[in-house]
């Protein structure tokens, strides 16, 4: 399963894009590859400070995000769903 998240507010100050790739392993565990990009349009050293601030906030909230997705995946597995089945699901 592949997800992409973007910030909706403060986009004039900084744009954040996070992608996550969830892979079901043969031992029934799930691995997750996370990539985040921070981009600020300001110059003169201000952009780097803004991007570092965004990165630190991202790192602070990463564990909460992982816990939330872990909860969702556990509930899906309890109901018999698997990642490869979700990939082939057709939206209603």
From TrEMBL:
PROSITE patterns linked: PRELI_MSF1
GO CC annotations on file: mitochondrial intermembrane space
Cross-referenced InterPro entries: PRELI/MSF1_dom, Slowmo/Ups
PRELI/MSF1 domain location: 1-81
PANTHER family the record matches: MSF1/PX19 RELATED
Protein name as annotated: Protein UPS1, mitochondrial
Source organism phylogeny: Eukaryota, Fungi, Dikarya, Ascomycota, Taphrinomycotina
């Amino acid at each position: 399963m592949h997800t992409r998240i973007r910030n909706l507010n403060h986009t004039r100050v900084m744009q954040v894009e996070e992608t996550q790739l969830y892979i079901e392993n043969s031992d029934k565990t799930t691995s997750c590859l996370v990539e985040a990009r921070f981009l600020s349009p300001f110059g003169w050293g201000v952009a780097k400070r803004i991007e570092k601030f965004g990165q630190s906030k991202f790192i602070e909230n990463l564990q909460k995000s992982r816990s939330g997705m872990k909860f969702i995946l556990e509930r899906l597995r309890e109901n018999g769903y698997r990642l490869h089945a979700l990939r082939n699901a057709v939206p209603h």
